[in-house]
Write a structure and sequence with these properties.
about 425 residues; alpha/beta; 10-stranded mixed β-sheet; 8-stranded parallel β-sheet; 20 strands; elongated
Length: about 425
Amino acid sequence: MKLQLNNEITLIEGKIDADEILREKIYEEVGGGQDEALYVCNLTNVVRKYEIWREKLPRVKPFYAVKCNDDDTVLGLLAKLGTGFDCASRAEINKVIGHGVTTDRIIFANPCKPSSHIRHAAATNTSLMTFDSTVELEKIRHIYPDAQLVLRIRCDAKKAQCPLGDKFGCDPKLEAPLLLTNAKNLGLTVVGISFHVGSGCRDPPVFRKAISAARELFDYAQALGYRMSLLDIGGGFPGDTDTDIAVIAGVVNSALNDYFPVTADEHVDIIAEPGRFFVSSAYTLGVTVHSKNEILETDGNVTHVKYYVNDGVYGSFNCILYDHQVVTPHILSRHASDAEGGGAEVVGVKCSIWGPSCDALDKICDNLTLPQLAIGDVIVFPNMGAYTLPIASAFNGFPIPTVLYFAENDVWSAFEDPLLY
């Protein structure tokens, strides 16, 4: 049974099956003639990720990285759950405030901010913000001297999906002490240290190294007369269905106990900036084959098939270019019974998948072996919630996919009970 909520979120009794929803919406409702790609957003998945975070990292409050996916429905849900928000611009701050979030739940985590955006932060009392240079300090002193500053240091993971250290973060040994001294001389308030080891971190021990460096700077700042109270451990937490934050959480919790133990003498709030952790696995994308081109050998046999679908790298699959994402497709059977097996053996064909634009760069996958597909067949891509929709464009006139929102009724009912969350 399905129940409609506010004409936006469909409540489902039982578990959400993204494939079954896409099968119904594309194959059954329109007979395989769907012109636009469709997303299924599983909001229950977001709620469960929040529960996992609270269980695995009890001392760390998540400040969701808005840039990862600024979908208003997800932002509203996270706001109700009680997360904070990592905003990088005036527009992101306004988006979050629009959901009733007070500015004490926002960190303006962009170390290099346009002056007009700092003025907006001052106007909205968004006081918590990062810096990593003398120039930024001078700018803030001139525009918003009452800001609560967080020094961002650099501590790069050896392996990360998207390294960030080349752009942001000061050297914790050489530059950070000088910047703290400079801030003190300018009469500015520094309340904490932040770092970001890299988005999609695959080097968990780096968190301990960064937390240790932050501890040294807390002690240095105390010698200058500061009493810092915030540690921001950034992002880097995986979010795909086949990933787990347990290893990173173990490293973080151990390091916090060693370097920032809970004592009566020092109270330090610990926050993080997870993005993909909350949304990656919540979104499943269904695209439809609208054209195909069979490449023949000299003997007339098909050696390769190019499949053209209704979303590409200028749309949702920009994550391939900008987020170094490796997408994993599977074919959506036209009937649920076919997906359960028992049919004839399917012979695969070497193929590639291409987006709808007229740019040759618009290639989604290559070197695949898939069953022979017909026009109107659907290919499904799970784990498509991170760094996809916010960057998508309607290049060449092809629309951004529609998002359909679903939640499991029992989880949603519990979520709406304020005593449970």
